[in-house]
Amino acid sequence: MRLTISHTTEYRYDEPAQFSLQRLRLTPLTGPGQTVLDWKLTVEGAHPEVEYEDQFANRVTLVSLDGQQEATRIVAAGEIETQDLNGVVGPHSGFSPLWLFLRETPRTKAGKLAKELVRGLSGDNELGKMHALMSAIHQTVEYKPGSSDTETTAEQALEKKSGVCQDHAHIFIAGARALRIPARYVSGYLLMEGTAEQTATHAWAEVHIPGLGWVGFDPANDVCPDARYVRIATGLCYRDAAPVSGMRLGTPGESLSVKVTVASQEQSQSQS
């Protein structure tokens, strides 16, 4: 499947910002299940400083804002050819050792509710238990935009029984690590049925299964990622894979708008 993607992030400041540094994890890489045919990242209102691969092998662009800027506009766009590999990404690679993905973070710490969820899982092996965990989260935690934020923990989302894809991923990771299965957070794009326009990127999780390597699970939709998914960045939790993160000097108020469009070649042709 060939996917056309456009992702625009715009910050507007109440007064000119003094200085900021931002890490942009907005560049997908060619790998299992996806081939980058064309991709361009443009930034208005900030200066590119350096591009590098971080400890999780994500492509990161560091940009700075220094001066009297009242807005920053970031546009990532291109075409990706995808394949359905039933969620299998394959052997571990990168700079971080596999054992690191057993480490808890504040967002993925398994509390009482997460441990109870894991204890009730069925399945004859690790893969079966991960499928059961995905379905259990999908049935337990309602997808409800606005019910959480980027600091919400897995346990808090389980208490509320609501959240967004980020929360579903954090709960899945917490449960997998409680079973001593390496797990990581994935940010990316998803082709939605019936609409091309979205207000955010997507998130899911991957676990490392002996004999298969990394395998993806999307509890928000109760499926393993297929040709509709594009991976951008991975990490221990949202913090490591956020599309945009950084620091700023001064405290001007800001407004944020995000627009994501993901369309298949067939959709693009039918709309033209």
From TrEMBL:
Occurrences of domain Transglutaminase-like (ranges): 157-221
Lineage, top ranks: Bacteria, Pseudomonadati, Pseudomonadota, Alphaproteobacteria, Hyphomicrobiales
Listed name of the protein: Transglutaminase family protein
Pfam families, per database record: Bact_transglu_N, Transglut_core
Signal peptide: none
Classification via InterPro entries: Bac_transglu_N, Papain-like_cys_pep_sf, Transglutaminase-like
Organism: Rhizobium jaguaris
